[in-house]
Design goal:
Layout lengths: L1 H24 L11 H12 L2 H34 L3 H12 L8 H8 L3 H25 L3 H9 L4 H39 L4 H10 L3 H29 L4 H8 L1
Helix pairs in contact: 2-10, 3-6, 3-8, 3-9, 5-6, 6-8, 8-9, 8-10, 9-10
């Protein structure tokens, strides 16, 4: 079944690339706006041979990784504290519901005002967007804790942190891993968007330069790189999630299927 899925996926990708080659060649769209696949592939090869491309890729991955790490740590710690401290969840519920829907891109002017085009601007937006993905999942995970297990732990004399470790954390971990996977994708989106809009060093800024200089094949090649990067991040996050939850019923069922 897995081999058949890979074959179907490869066939679909080949058909998509062939369509991308044929549409501009047949004159259905102008090559100046949508170059054939072969031209994009050639531009991609030139990019891979350019050291500046790898520097930009490193800048993007740095902003993504740092922002994601900060957001995950802050989201887990905040979620656990809000859940275990009496009445803190009720006291913070309205604040969370007010701040969470604010689009991160709306904070771009603030980030530029505070930090200009430095890495800290990227981190501000990435952390803000990714933090909520983790926090909300942690809160949902804590809500799913079995009250009977909680009361049993109390009756056996487990302290607050022991209950967090042995009761709350195993229940919340599947939710936490879902939040991390979502946050990883959101972090990449905000990293590229911030670089594209404010010109912070990275792939986004390189895409903007290619667009303004009318280097259309190079622009599409860089867009392809961001797509591949997103795919790799998603696959990596799924792999980590499966390994971290190898004991969980949902993962065992997925492997069995």
């Amino acid at each position: 079944m897995k081999g058949a899925n890979l074959a179907l996926g490869g066939t679909g990708l080949a058909a998509f690339l062939a369509l991308g080659e044929a549409v501009p060649r047949l004159g259905l769209v102008k090559e100046a706006y949508f170059p054939p696949t072969t031209r994009i592939a050639g531009a991609l090869g030139d990019e891979l041979a350019d050291s500046a491309f790898w520097t930009a890729l490193g800048d993007t991955l740095t902003g993504w990784a740092l922002g994601l790490a900060i957001a995950v740590c802050a989201g887990i710690v905040t979620g656990v504290l809000v859940s275990v401290v009496p009445h803190l969840r009720e006291a913070t519920a309205s604040t969370i519901e007010f701040l969470r829907p604010i689009p991160s891109v709306a904070l771009i002017p603030l980030a530029v005002l505070l930090y200009g085009t430095e890495l800290r601007s990227v981190l501000l937006l990435v952390v803000y967007a990714s933090f909520w993905q983790v926090l909300i999942q942690v809160l949902y995970g804590v809500q799913d804790v079995d009250p009977v297990a909680e009361e049993t732990a109390r009756s056996y004399g487990l302290g607050p942190w022991a209950r967090v470790r042995y009761v709350l954390w195993p229940t919340a971990l599947p939710y936490v891993m879902t939040g991390v996977r979502l946050a990883a994708a959101v972090a990449l989106i905000l990293t590229i968007t911030t670089e594209l809009v404010i010109g912070a060093p990275g792939l986004g800024a390189r895409i903007a330069v290619a667009q303004t200089s009318q280097a259309v094949p190079e622009m599409y090649a860089l867009v392809v790189v961001t797509g591949v990067l997103g795919l790799l991040i998603n696959v990596g996050a799924r792999t980590v999630e499966r390994r971290a939850l190898a004991w969980h019923q949902s993962v065992r069922q997925e492997v069995a299927v």
